[in-house]
Structure formats: structure tokens, C-alpha cells
Amino acid sequence: MASFTPYTYFQCPCTDTSTPTRNLGDEQPPETEENSDDERTFDPRAPRSNYSLYPLEHLFYCEDCHQIRCPRCVLDEIVTWYCPNCLFEVPSSTVKSEGNRCTRSCFQCPICVAPLSVSSLEAPPEGLGAELASQQNGPFVLNCAYCMWSSKETGIQFEKPNGIFAQLAKIKNGGEPILTAKDRRKDREERKRDFSGSSAAEESQENEAPINLDPNERLDPESQFSNLKAFYQTQMAESSPVSALGFTGDYGYGSPGALSRIMGLYTGGSYADKKSKTKSGTMREARDALEGLQIDPLSDEDAINKLRTEGWESTASAEQRHEQTTHTPFLSDLRPVAYLLRTKRSKRCKTCRHILSKPESKVQTTRFRIRLVALNYIPSIIIKPLQPILPTASPLLAPLNPVQFLLTFKNPLFDSVKVTLATPAKTPGRFPTKVTVLCPQFEVGANTDVWDEALRDNNTKSSLSGEKRRTKAEASEGQHQAEAGKVWERGRNWVSVVVEVVPPSLRIEDSEWLKSEEMKRDGGEVRDGEEVVEIPVFVRVEWEGEVGGEDSGLGGGGKDKEVREKRELAYWCVLGLGKVDVD
Amino acid sequence: MSKKQPKGEYIETDTGNKVSRRSQIIGTTNIILGGKTVIQAEVIIRGDLLRTYPASNPSEKQGNTVAVAIGRYCFFSRGCELRPPGKLYKGQFSHYPLKIADHVFVGPSSIIEAALIGSHVNIGSNVVVGKFAIIKDYVRILDGSVVPPNMVIPSFSVVAGRPARVVGEIAEGEVDGMDLREVYRAVGNG
């Protein structure tokens, strides 16, 4: 309630066209506008409007479509992957093989998401020559400098201060080693051989396996998953021997067996060969831990006991569990979270596939190779109250009291533009605001170089500044009445016009319309956001630009550079002017 | 603000810095201002927190006397504090220099103990930037955030929360708006 900063949102024309009730006047090509823009008024409070309104800074402008593009109608393409903590670039091949997390030593605290730093547990050397001691020795732990969590609390310590990701992958919470994937694979191959042999020999072979694997061991989630995956892969391979020939990938879509199945689908099942059908369906389920089965009646009991003894404080919060990849009901189960990689992305127009923004691929540079932002193409709108608000006065708008605002249009183009504004006389919604734009049609000068202005300024300085002073003086006296059809103030590439609004009264009993059926239905409450005066404005910009940039070299284009093209752009804006005093 | 100060609020230096008379700048010899920087009232800059730990290579020793380095067109709002970060290293406590690049805005009552702040960084009000944080270019830190120590904030991030985390990205169009030249020009003794 205290303060309100006026805002301007622009509507992107990509909004859904399937809703005929919602106005989409700007969606049509400019020629048909005459008959459409009177009838439909953009309602900034409509539930869909939220999804099409953006501040100007968030919008792009496609030079080929000559249209505004919003974050919802562009395509993102990843240029670079990098770790947001160590800022090292990760090649996309590594991302595919290792996953989307940093595999160096970048971790987040599992308790509070702050970054973890590696520190030594050994007491720093003291006494003479302490500063000459070259390297700190282990063991090392991960420490959170924000909430003071330490990996020691969950029993994790490291031997080396670098390559923490690889080290962590080998340690369970509590310090026990995790069987590496390599060991498991060795074991699995062992078992595969058993399967192909006799199943009776299985038990005896198992005991002789290089690593003694307990069929009832408690698996950590990663190894359980890898066990299960391996088990079902062998099952699938065995159940359909036809496809076993080509079974290399996870799904084996390219295999002859799968192909014949798919062909069977098309031919109504008659094609599906009986042979493979009879043979499939003999898949069995996992039997023990080695195959990924985990039946652990103890774990529930353990959990209950732990809750009894350590209480609610020992459980992990929903956010903390959300960050983890596995099931972690207790704080002691939490593991440091490796940083998710971040990306640099280029953006393309969804309609014509031209690039709208392309950053440099290097992580450390912040330059853009291509950056077509709407800011450089369509005039920005700045809202200011015409009468300066005294610091003592209430920042709220008094109901039913006309207020005047200054809209300043700044032209970023190097051609002068003609701007036409249109607003509904009354804004849509339950509490309509009366709106009058005193000067709906004006021209904004070109955005020439600053030097041009400086040079011109020298000649006309006296007259210009005199003019400005006059308007200012008059404004403060309140004598200079905003005249209809006249621009309030004008600069090199900007124009200010006055808009007068009469804010509505939010009293339910004042509103005739509400007294009827609407009030009974809604209970007459002022809904959230209804006290904000938002005004839809239809802006039409016309200018004569140079004929289409670089790639429209239509043969003779190079000969006469003076070819000018008439351009037109029309869109809805929403001006947030202020809040109305509720009582 | 009833009585106007006779000399004006700001002292303007040769390089165009506008330094409030009511700011507390300690250890001025260890502070570098790149120029056109605004320092408002009640700002504290701790230039006295010098690095005491000997530099690893002797060639660095000349530059050892800088505690706070600030670039051009920075803006330090009322009541914020810049303090070089310090830590215990090999059994010895030492401060390390705080480097701030160009076009950095620091909101009122914020405390900065970062190691490095890149260009075009906007820090809101009542923000705490923890020790040895590294903030890259084009970053916006929203009001009331607490950036944890040692955090690295990559470019084009919007950061908020306690502890701070990346909550969004700076849009391509917002990049131009983070220039502080206009803000500098608006500050005067008037």
C-alpha cells in the first residue's frame, strides 16, 4: 500500500487466438485494424493477460517478421553449458555422459543451499615456520559458511581437497565405501555367465565371486537402480531372442524384433510372428538385491525409532528433500548437492527461425553477437504524475477525482515516428476508470546522435531552454492547462502527452452495476489487484524506414539507397498508474 | 533538511567523484576510486583493513597497499558499508582487497564484504554480501538478500533470498538499463 511505482507492460501478439472473446486486435494485419480495434478492448485483468504482458526490457523484435517477440514465442538454443560456481565450461558431450551437474568440487549445502567450501580438519600448523608449511593435509570436509553445516555431521571425509565429486561418489553417508559401478558390472557379468550356464550352479558361483556380494545387502539408490536396469535389460534380451541380436541400446527400437512388432501393429496383428509372441511373456521379476530387489522391513522400523528418539528436528524439510536425488527422510541422509550446470542460450523467432539474440559462447564474456531487443525498435513509455506529489500527500489516488499523468514516449529509431494512441473511454472491469488521452496523435523525432543534438543545441539553446522553463514554471503554478490535441512537451526524440483519468470509487454501494446481480454473486468484495488503476492503451507506430536490412538485397537494392518503406507496428500496452484509495 | 549546508553536500574530486561530507572513509590512502563515483552520506569504507599476509610473489608487493578498489560510475547509497573480507589462512588472519568494477550500484544500508564485484551490478537495499563472494557482470541482487560467503554469482543472474540463490535471469533488454551514467549526472549539490 505504501508506495507504487508506475509501470508499463507491452502485450506480445503471440497470445492464443483460440479465444474469440479476448480481444486480439493487434494480432490482425494493420489493414484490417479499422474495423477491429474499436470493438475489442484489451482487458488487463483478464486471467489470460498475465501471460502476454511483459515489460519492454523482456521483449525482442524480429526484424524479419516485423513483430514483437516475447519469451514465450522464442526458441532457446543452448550455446554453452557451464558450472555457475567454478565457471568452467562443460562440453555438451560430457553433459550427455556425466549428467547436468558439476563434476569438479562444486557443492551446495544440503541444509541451506549455500555453497560448500573444502577445508582441512587438521589443526593449522603453529609456531615458527608455520606459514612456510606448504600444504594442508587431510582429512578434508565440506563446510557451509552460512549455516555451519559440515559433511562431518553425516560422516563424510575426503582424502584430497580436489575432485570431491569423484570422491563423494565412493562414500556413503557414514563413511562406508560405495561399490563402484565398475565392481558391480564385473559382478553382473559373472552372473550373466551363470545364467547362460545352469541355474543350479548359481549359488556356488556367487560365493566365489571376486567381491563377496550379499543377496540381501542394503543397496544405495544408485546401485539399486543400476542393478534393476541391468536385470531388466538381460531379461528383455533373453525373453525375445530375435531382438537380442540388435539389443544394444536401452530400448532397442532399431532391432529387428522391435521392427517386426511395429510392423505387426500396422498390419493389425496378423503380421506379428507367433514365434516371438510365444517366447516373450516369460519375464520374471527381480529376486534379490543383486537384481535390484529391496525388501527391507527394518527400514520402516528404523525410521519410526529414529523419529521417536530424535524427533521432528531430525527430519529433512520438503525443500531439502526436493534438492536431493533420492529418498531422504532424515537430515542424516542428506548429501551435498553438486551444482546444477547453467547454460548460455541463443534465442530464435519461432515463426521465421531467425536469431534474435546470440551471446558469445565463452563463459566469461558478457557480449552479444546478435541482440534484437524491442527496446531498440519500439518507443518506450514513461509515466509521471503531472502535478508533483508532495511527500506529505497520500500516494493513493483519490476516487472520482480527475488526475493527470504525463506519458513520455521516447523513440529509439533513427527515423521519426508517428504515434497514434487509443484507449477505451472506460476501462473494462468491475470498477471502470474513465480515461482521456488529450493528444492521441503526435510525431516523435528521430533518435539522432547525441552529438547532433549537442551541436544543434548551441544554435537554439536560448530559445529552447526558454521554452522549457516556461512550461515548467507554468506547470508549477498550475496555470498551464493541458490542452486537447496539443503535445505537452517535446524533445529531440521524445514527446510527452497528458492523459487524464478519473479513478473509480471502490465502494460497492456506489457502483450501480454492482448492485444488481453481480454483487450477489461475488459478495461485493474488492478483489486483489482491483484497486490498481490499469489502463489499456492501443499504440500504433508508423514510420518510414530503410528497406529491409542486410539480406533483402533484391538486385537493384544497392543502386538507390533512398528507397524508403512504410512500416507500421501496433500493439496493446497496459499502463499501471496508481492505486485507488479503498475507503 | 531545513537548513542548507553552506558548502553543499558533496565534495567533488578532480576525477569527478562526488563524496558526501557525511560519509566515513577510513584509510583513504588504501582506497582507489576510478572516478565519477558517488558516495552518499553515512557510507562507511574501511580502507584500513589492509592485507597483512605477505603476497606469494614479491612483485605483488607494490600493489599491496590497496584495500578497496572501485571503478567508474559506481553509486554507494546512504548507510552502506564496504569492508574488505578477511580470513584465517595458514594460521594467520588477514584481510584481502575488495575490488569493485564499473557501474556498480549499492543500495542503502547494505554491507559488502565481497572479494570481487563485476561491472553493471545492482545491489538492492539491506543486502549482505558475504565474505569472499564473487559477483560477475550484470547481476541484480534484490532487496534484503543475504549472499552467503564464498558464493560465486555468474553473469546475468537475479539473486534473492536468505541465503541468496539465483532466482532468475537478466533479460537481454535489461542490459542497457544497468548503466549508471545518468544516475551520476543526476547527483549534485543542488
TrEMBL record, chain A:
It is found in: Cytoplasm, Cytoskeleton, Microtubule organizing center, Centrosome; Cytoplasm, Cytoskeleton, Stress fiber; Cytoplasm, Myofibril. Residues 28-37 have a biased composition (Acidic residues). Signal peptide: none annotated. GO terms for cellular component: dynactin complex; stress fiber. Residues 18-47, 177-220, 457-484 are annotated as: Disordered. Residues 181-195, 466-477 have a biased composition (Basic and acidic residues). Pfam families: Dynactin_p62. The keyword Acetylation applies. Keywords: Acetylation, Coiled coil, Cytoplasm, Cytoskeleton, Isopeptide bond, Phosphoprotein, Ubl conjugation. It comes from the Eukaryota. InterPro entries: DCTN4. PANTHER family: DYNACTIN P62 SUBUNIT (PTHR13034), DYNACTIN SUBUNIT 4 (PTHR13034:SF2). Belongs to the dynactin subunit 4 family. Subunit of dynactin, a multiprotein complex part of a tripartite complex with dynein and a adapter, such as BICDL1, BICD2 or HOOK3. The dynactin complex is built around ACTR1A/ACTB filament and consists of an actin-related filament composed of a shoulder domain, a pointed end and a barbed end. Its length is defined by its flexible shoulder domain. The soulder is composed of 2 DCTN1 subunits, 4 DCTN2 and 2 DCTN3. The 4 DCNT2 (via N-terminus) bind the ACTR1A filament and act as molecular rulers to determine the length. The pointed end is important for binding dynein-dynactin cargo adapters. This is Dynactin subunit 4.
From TrEMBL, chain B:
One of its GO terms (cellular component) is dynactin complex. The keyword Cytoplasm applies. CDD domains: LbH_Dynactin_5. It is found in: Cytoplasm, Cytoskeleton. Keywords: Cytoplasm, Cytoskeleton. The keyword Transmembrane helix does not apply. Belongs to the dynactin subunits 5/6 family. Dynactin subunit 5 subfamily. This is Dynactin subunit 5.
